[in-house]
Specification:
The complex is a heterodimer of chains A (362) and B (613). With 362 residues, chain A is an alpha/beta fold. The relative contact order of chain A is 0.19. Helix content of chain A is 43%, strand content 16%. The longest helix of chain A has 15 residues. In chain A, α10 crosses α11. Chain B has 17 helices and 12 strands. In chain B, the strands form 2 sheets. In chain B, strands 1, 2, 3, 4, 5, 6 and 7 form a 7-stranded mixed β-sheet that branches. A 5-stranded parallel β-sheet of chain B has the order 9-8-10-11-12, sandwiched between helices. The longest helix of chain B has 117 residues. The chains are: A alpha/beta (362), B alpha/beta (613).
């Protein structure tokens, strides 16, 4: 789950109707499909007030869920958020519209370094995607519980996750891993000193071997790491920065920390896409424009604890603790961040099957 | 015949094409309709398969959910059973869908989804089923079952919208197919109409034209043939008339000459002139008969007569010839209850018999010729039937020739003509005459062993009368006879015969003279040639009859003509003639005619050649 869970701020499937019907009245609701807990309620409300129509935010917790939904077509979403590496697969099944380059250019004052990496990893992103949120994949820990069981750790290495001894030691307080096979395999390969994006048979064997060894001590593989740690069902989680930072930043739970391991990790990017066979052409444009407004982006960034790619928003992001920013992508480790190479449907299926069999000890 | 064959082939060919076109159109129409039907049926089947998968996936996700929450509870046992059942149904449906044969029948959109690489629903479904098999495996740990059920449940849930999308695609395609069905129906109708149109335009209409053209051609030919036949008959009648006239002179004079004082050589030569003339006459008569028959103008004068006598008379005609060759010619009559007095056409019957007997004599060198007369009237038969057989011991007829000997100008073989002479018309006349008499003629013969011609003919029952035979042997007349004929030879012939009977003769060369003489000279009888210059015999007769109107008695006028057709006889009677003689006029025929008009002149005295006055 990229986002956070908090009773007061929970906006899962936020539906806010507006009393003022103006520009888009009579054309039905606007539908937006995004990660769970990434869009704050006030953004939704503001859209309704401004456009006199209802913005419905539908959410997902696992990327595969979104991929399946968008792959089915006729989703009815005017815009959707997906991890950028999923883009080529969706394009291959004709599930997405291209954005108008001119319109897209007006929206984007992309952060040069991040944008470069995005284009390098997924060239077609420039046609089909508008960069939205950024973050890293790392380790979320309940410091007290972890240090109690593994006192010698410096809380800076993937060792804490991948070393079976540590895993065994931590198994009683709970280990949970995000259900994102490509990211997990990539960090495992990276930890092993191999190419994180390798699909070579022996590389995969080694990676899955590593994972299989810690699997007996893993409690869950799903999309609710934050919830499990907050509720003391887990003390160690392999998860996303946005997910991991919320307890400390927003709830003041200082014992729950996130770190980017020194070996390097995944720099992930979520992008806005325009699903094929969506409801209204006009809706998509209005929503795209709205979501890219600096003020709106700032609110989303603050709420989701993810980076946006528009420099002009930095001022608006002053409330986002620089410390938090540093935690997401520490300056001294930015060189070790890598992006995921898109996988074909076939490659994805190979990974999925090994992932499932590995979980079942097969 | 070959034209007929061509026509038949043409019609069959054309008909075949027409039927083929219509058949092809019907088959195409049917095929077009079937395509539509198949498409709709396939869509329905595909939708049903996808529905099964959808239902199974729903059941699976619910069962997986239960398994995940409480893998070891009592309810989990039930859930496992659900999983097994739903997985089985899903597997079967999936197998159906994934077979290439079925896959091909999905709509393009459905196929696109089923065949695609990313998020391929069939491959993902395989994983669901694999995970299901783990989840229900009792050897698995509780942890594994929970995990497998969790993964399978998530995956099953994700697959639902994709399969639903396939179903939507199939339903849309089915709707489209249903719409197309209407189009197909219209196309099928159009094809059928087109087929009928093509068949009509290119086959039936030309065929109709062809048949009409052929019919009019047949009609034209028929008219032509009729005209030609008529012309032929006219030609023959005219020709025979033209030949008879001089022949009349030859024969008549020979007849007269024979009664003069001649030495033996002269007598023989006169006899030869007579027989040659007779042969020529016979030939002309044959040709004329045939012409008459073909023109449908056979003279069937029904009379009461004795058929046995007729047979004997006919046989007698040839008895001389037969005797010369040493061949016996006999007539045998089987016993009959009713007697041989019958009603029929004696002339025709005589002609048939004469031809048959004549042939028999001609072709028999030795042995016997027998004429058998038999009454074959059946016991309950209303009409009498006679059987007249002429059997000879002659050369016989080859089997191959039997069929065509009744055809005109046909003899058994061409050498026959050379050896025996003849025109080849005799048997043809025999057959036509027999047919005219409503009888049948047939022949049985073996080459070298003689032949038997059999005539079976129906006859009427005659009123029995006692026939008084009159002799014409000796007659003497004392009458004034006016002979009107433009031909000097014929004038002479008539005059000589009449004078030899003791009559006084006056001559007229045309109708006018005849009328004058009839008025001035008051003849007892006029022999009037029908065809004469200035005024013909018929017209002259009418004038004479008109002049005599009101008188008590009228002079008998006997027409003389070489024209043998019956209609001429009728014409003569209508003009007022009292009799009609066919040229060449013989002494015997003339005496008979005179006796008819002057029965009292008959004497039984010895022949007296001198005229009384």
């Amino acid at each position: 789950m990229r986002g956070m869970i908090k009773g007061l701020m929970a906006t899962a499937t936020a539906v806010v109707g507006s009393l003022v019907a103006t520009a888009l009245a009579g054309e039905g609701n606007l539908w937006f499909y995004a990660w769970n807990n990434t869009i704050p309620l006030e953004v939704v409300q503001e859209f309704g007030e401004r456009h006199g129509t209802t913005l419905v935010v539908d959410t997902f917790m696992v990327a595969d869920e979104a991929e399946a939904r968008l792959a089915a077509g006729r989703s009815g979403y005017d815009l959707a958020v997906v991890p950028v590496e999923m883009l080529p697969r969706l394009v291959s099944i004709d599930a997405l519209h291209k954005f108008d380059p001119e319109e897209r250019a007006q929206l984007n004052g992309s952060h040069p370094r991040l944008m470069d990496r995005l284009s390098e990893a997924v060239p077609m992103a420039s046609d089909y995607a508008v960069p939205f949120l950024w973050g890293t994949t790392g380790v979320m820990v309940d410091i007290d519980d972890v240090l109690e069981r593994v006192p010698e750790t410096a809380l800076n290495s993937w060792d804490l996750v991948f070393n079976p001894e540590y895993a065994e030691a931590l198994s009683d307080c709970g280990i949970t891993i995000v259900d994102a096979v490509q990211e997990v395999v990539a960090v495992a390969l990276n930890y092993l000193g191999r190419d994180p994006n390798s699909m070579a048979e022996d590389d995969l064997d080694v990676a899955f071997d590593l994972l299989a060894r810690i699997m007996p001590y893993v409690r869950t593989i799903d999309g609710s790491q934050q919830e499990q740690v907050l509720q003391n069902e887990a003390c160690l989680a392999l998860t996303w920065s946005s997910d991991a930072l919320a307890p400390q930043s927003l709830l003041g739970r200082d014992e729950i920390r996130y770190f980017v391991p020194q070996e390097g990790t995944v720099l992930w990017a979520d992008v806005l896409v325009w699903p094929n066979e969506s409801g209204h052409f006009e809706h998509s444009h209005v929503l795209l424009k709205y979501l890219n407004e600096p003020g709106v982006l700032a609110k989303i960034s603050q709420f989701s604890l993810a980076l946006t790619d528009i420099p002009t928003t930095h001022e608006a992001m002053q409330s986002l603790d620089l410390d938090v920013l540093e935690q997401i992508a520490p300056k001294q480790r930015r060189e070790q961040l890598f992006m995921l190479t898109p996988r074909t449907g076939e490659e994805k299926r190979i990974l999925d099957r090994r992932w499932r069999r590995m979980q079942l000890g097969l | 015949m070959s034209t007929l064959r061509i026509t038949r082939r043409y019609l069959r060919w054309r008909n075949g094409i027409a039927l083929s076109i219509v058949l092809a159109a019907a088959v195409t129409a049917m095929w077009v309709t079937m395509i539509g039907r198949d498409t709709v049926a396939t869509r329905n089947q595909n939708t049903a398969s996808v529905d099964t998968v959808l239902l199974s996936l729903s059941e699976l996700s619910m069962a997986f959910q239960e398994l995940r929450i409480s893998p070891s509870s009592q309810r989990a046992v039930n859930s496992r059973a659900h999983v097994r059942r739903a997985a089985h149904a899903a597997k079967e449906a999936a197998d159906t869908i994934s077979s290439e044969a079925t896959l091909k029948t999905f709509s393009p959109e459905g196929q696109g989804i089923l065949r695609r690489d990313a998020m391929n629903p069939m491959l993902e479904l395989e994983d669901v089923l694999f995970l299901a098999s783990v989840a229900v495996d009792p050897r698995r740990s509780q942890n594994d079952v929970t995990r497998a059920a969790g993964m399978a449940g998530d995956l099953a849930m994700r697959l639902l919208p994709i399969f639903n999308r396939i179903k939507q695609a199939e339903l849309a395609a089915a709707q489209e197919a249903a719409d197309k069905q209407v189009t197909y129906g219209i196309i099928a109708l159009f094809i059928t109409v087109l087929g009928i149109g093509l068949a009509t335009r290119f086959v039936h209409v030309p065929m109709e034209r062809f048949v009409i053209r052929a019919q009019s051609e047949i009609e034209r030919n028929r008219r032509k043939a009729e005209a030609a036949s008529e012309a032929k008959s006219m030609f023959l009648a005219t020709m025979s008339h033209e030949i008879r006239t001089p022949l009349n002179g030859v024969l008549g004079l020979a007849d007269v000459l024979k009664d003069t004082r001649l030495d033996s050589d002269q007598a023989r030569m006169v006899s030869m002139i007579q027989s040659s003339g007779q042969a020529l006459l016979q030939l002309i008569n044959d040709v004329l008969d045939l012409a008459k028959i073909e023109a449908g103008k056979i003279d069937l004068n029904l009379e009461d007569f004795d058929v046995h006598d007729l047979c004997q008379e006919t046989a007698e005609l040839f008895s001389g010839q037969a005797a010369k060759k040493g061949v016996t010619l006999t007539v045998h009559a089987a016993p009959t209850v009713e007697g041989w007095h019958v009603r029929s056409a004696p002339q025709a019957l005589r002609q048939v018999l004469a031809n048959l007997v004549g042939n028999a004599v001609k072709f028999t060198e030795q042995g016997a010729i027998e004429v058998h007369l038999e009454d074959i009237t059946t016991q309950n038969g209303e009409e009498r039937r006679l059987r007249i057989a002429v059997k000879d011991d002659g050369i016989g007829i080859a089997l191959s020739a039997l069929e065509r000997i009744f055809d005109q100008f046909e003899q058994a073989d061409s050498s026959t003509t050379t050896e025996f002479g003849g025109t080849g018309l005799g048997l043809s006349i025999v057959q036509r005459m027999s047919e005219a008499l409503e009888g049948q003629i047939h022949v049985e013969s073996t080459l070298g062993e003689g032949a038997e011609f059999v005539l079976e003919v129906p006859v009427g029952r005659a009123v029995p009368v006692v026939v008084e035979t009159k002799t014409t042997e000796v007659a003497s007349f004392d009458k004034r006879v006016l002979v009107a004929d433009d031909n000097r030879v014929n004038q002479l012939v008539a005059r000589k015969i009449v004078e030899s009977l003791g009559c006084e003769v006056a001559l007229a060369s045309n109708g006018h003279e005849a009328v004058d003489m009839a008025a001035k000279w008051s003849p007892d009888i006029v022999l009037m040639d029908v065809r004469m210059p200035l005024m013909d015999g018929l017209q002259a007769t009418r004038v004479i009859r008109a002049d005599q109107a009101g008188q008590d008695t009228s002079v008998p006028i006997v027409g003389l003509s070489a024209n043998a057709l019956a209609e001429h006889r009728e014409e003569a009677e209508q003009a007022g003639m009292s009799g009609y003689l066919q040229k060449p006029v013989t002494r015997a025929a003339l005496i008979t005619e005179l006796l008819r008009h002057f029965p009292d002149a008959t004497t039984d005295t010895r022949r007296n050649d001198t005229c009384a006055g």
